[in-house]
Design a protein that fits this description.
With about 110 residues, this protein is an alpha+beta fold. It has 2 helices and 7 strands, in the order ββββββαβα.
Length: about 110
């Protein structure tokens, strides 16, 4: 996986599993056990966003995307859907990951929550 390199709309569910899909076909889900969001293409996990939870605060710490899918919008879809899901859960997001922070600068209309 490419470290911190990555290029939707979330349908977060309160039951602990986010399962959104955007126009690029990237499906994002929350993995409670791994404390991460996972991104899949055609049913195969190809990216993750590691989250450090501190109560209602979620530090978006690290984004990884498989080299073979770079440039296909996986990272952007992962960040966008994870942010929407985190807001839906009432979490305050702290974007420590450089990719997440850069994505937010490019999308000032998105409230990180």
């Amino acid at each position: 996986m490419a470290d911190g390199q990555a290029d939707g709309q979330a349908d977060g569910q309160a039951d602990g599993q986010a399962d959104g899909r955007d126009a690029s076909g990237v499906a994002v889900r929350w993995d409670e056990d791994g404390s991460q969001y996972l991104a899949a293409l055609d049913g195969t996990d190809v990216g993750r966003l590691v989250v450090e939870r501190h109560g209602d605060r979620a530090v978006f710490a690290h984004t990884l995307v498989d080299d073979g899918v770079e440039g296909r919008g996986v990272g952007s879809a992962l960040v966008e859907q994870a942010l929407a899901d985190a807001r839906g859960r009432g979490w305050t997001v702290d974007p420590r990951c450089p990719f997440v922070a850069a994505w937010l600068r490019r999308h000032p209309e998105v409230d990180p929550g």
